Amino acid sequence: MRERFRLYALNELFNAELYARLAAGERNESNRRLLEELAKVERSHYGFWSSLAGEGVELGLRERLRLAALLAASRVLGRTFIIKLLEGHEASTAEEYERAKEALEGEELERLKGIIEDERRHELELASRLDEVVVRQLGSIALGVSDAIIELTGVLLGFVGYAASPTQVAVAGLIVGVSAALSMAAAAYAQAKHEKGKNPAATAAFTGSFYMLTVLLLVLPLLAGLQVPVAVALSMATALALLSALSFYGSVLMERRFAREFAESALVVFAVALAGYAIGALARGLTGVAG
């Protein structure tokens, strides 16, 4: 049992160190206080488990490398995402702790009940209060990426059905994509002006930028000189990869189920792509354009 307590202590020490490092690099005072509170909570949990283990523990090379990787990822993905990703696994941790209750009694048992409550609710509540641009603009990012994927897959497959030249399809996709990105940015700006607390310029920039980035990623295989079936397959694979990443990111931040969210989005993309191809093929048949 002591070995299990030691592993629990190591896990809590890792989390405490991560939150402390994140707090040290945080400029927003409110965020820094929240991160310091999280670190304090985890440090108290570490103290409890290390006392039961009968010894303190230290982070090994494996934990330090993982810590460095998460700190680097937080600069790109945001602190909230990293914390919620870790805390999302706390449900299983809480279940582990529940089993440990059988070995404890009295004051130690009561202390463990408080720790379980922290793992299940308190820590996620604290993480949800962090204020980050990437979280505030998640809706704009999701709108830009998902709308570009759905629209561009339909357009690209439509032109593939109409004219099988990869260059023509790519140019058509770029024209439609650039125009749509500007349109989406303008619409996002106009909408944000009527929403309290929104920054219209930032909302427009995030929506338009991520829309355009998605367009470029989807069109790139068609500009690589590949045969049409291969290029289209790569574009669709890219679309699904982007959807998967976006769905996973959103599911962690919003605490939703990833599989269902991704499945629904993928189904819409395939439906739009097939409809686009069918319309393109029909247009080619009606106009007599050679494939």
Would you identify the regions where 5 or more consecutive residues have pLDDT less than 50? none
Count every helix, treating DSSP H or I runs of 4 or more residues as helices: 12
Strand content: under 5%
Shape annotation: elongated
According to DSSP, the number of beta strands is 0
Q: What is the CA-CA span between the terminal residues? A: 70 Å
The proportion of residues forming helix, as a percent range, comes to: over 70%
Radius of gyration over C-alpha positions, nearest whole angstrom: 25 Å
Largest β-sheet summary: none
Question: Which class best fits the helix and strand makeup?
Answer: mainly alpha
Quaternary assembly: single chain
- Summed up, the domain count is 2
Order of helices and strands, N to C? HHHHHHHHHHHH
Mean pLDDT: 83
Can you walk through the features of this model?
This protein is mainly α and 291 residues long. The chain has 2 domains: 2-133, Up-down Bundle (Ferritin); 137-287, no CATH class. The protein contains 12 helices and no strands. Helix 9 runs antiparallel to helix 10 (200-219). The model has no long low-confidence stretch (mean pLDDT 83).
Per-chain topology:
Elements lengths: L1 H23 L4 H25 L7 H17 L1 H9 L2 H11 L5 H23 L4 H4 L1 H25 L3 H27 L7 H20 L8 H27 L3 H30 L4
Helix pairs in contact: 1-2, 1-3, 2-6, 3-4, 4-6, 5-6, 8-9, 8-10, 8-11, 8-12, 9-10, 10-11, 11-12
